[in-house]
Amino acid sequence: LILGELREGVLLTAARDQVVYVNATAERLLGRAADQTVGRPAADVFRLIHRLTGKPGESPIERALATGEPT
Hints:
single chain, alpha+beta, two-stranded antiparallel ribbon, 2 strands
């Protein structure tokens, strides 16, 4: 799979927000192995936090699923 060779972190979800794939870079960035990530809701494994305010950020995954547009 070409996505596995990318240096960027790749997290793929199904239409219902379930993680179906993470590459090695994403595993490292998330601090979780693929077997701890695949099958779980994306919101459980990927959360953005504003570095200055500490407040939750907008989820690009939820935005992409809602709009159908890639992020």
